[in-house]
Amino acid sequence: MPVVQIVEVIRGLRTSDETTVAAIDVARRLGKTPVEVNDFPGFVANRVMMPLINEAAFALMEGVAEVEAIDTVMRLGMNHPMGPLELADLIGLDTCLNILEVLHRELGDDRYRPYPPLRKFVAAGWLVRKSGRGFHQYPSTKDR
After folding, report:
1. In a structure prediction context, what are the per-residue pLDDT tens digits for the chain, which is 144 residues long?
2. What is the CATH number of domain 45-143?
3. Residue 66, Cβ neighbours under 10 Å: how many?
4. Is the distance from CB of 9 to CB of 23 less than 8 angstroms?
5. 3-state secondary structure of 15
6. pLDDT tens, residue by residue, 51-79
7. Which of 25, 30, 132, 144 is the most exposed place for a label (fewest CB within 10 A)?
8. How far apart are CA 131 and CA 46, in angstroms?
9. Which helix (H) or strand (E) holds 34?
10. Domain ranges within the chain, ordered by starting residue
């Protein structure tokens, strides 16, 4: 499983320089690259990543391409380490839905409106590696 190499360090309005330096130091000791970003819904990673995942899901729903084709285009054509639907499965569809709902509510921007079947997938228990089903199919923990 890929490991995220960065830690977004958020400095709140009342965060001291000492606290920020301490957080950056902890991240470095953990072998991560700290990146200081502003306190805003979704910070950077979720603000940029979730619309990509959501748009890939909409492309699937609209019949633009199948799951594997979408992921392959992004892996090989855009040099991403994994496709957006594979990434959604890794994150967990329930987590993706939660992040999209928060971003949609907090920012009021429809680009964060969750892909309509996502709520159905989560309600059906498609929790990816926990259940063996997401955009891709995986051996469930019961099958191991």
Report:
1. 457 899 999 999 999 999 999 999 999 999 999 999 999 999 999 999 999 999 999 999 999 999 999 999 999 999 999 999 999 999 999 999 999 999 999 999 999 999 999 999 999 998 886 678 889 888 765 544
2. 1.10.1040.50
3. 12
4. yes
5. coil
6. 999 999 999 999 999 999 999 999 999 99
7. 144
8. 24
9. strand 33-38
10. 6-38, 45-143
Rg (CA), the chain: 17
CA distance 60 to 121: 14
Q: What is the DSSP string of 54-113?
A: HHHHHHHHTTS--HHHHHHIIIIIS--SS-HHHHHHHH-HHHHHHHHHHHHHHH--GGGS
Average pLDDT over the chain reads 91
| Residue written as token pair 């991403």 | 80
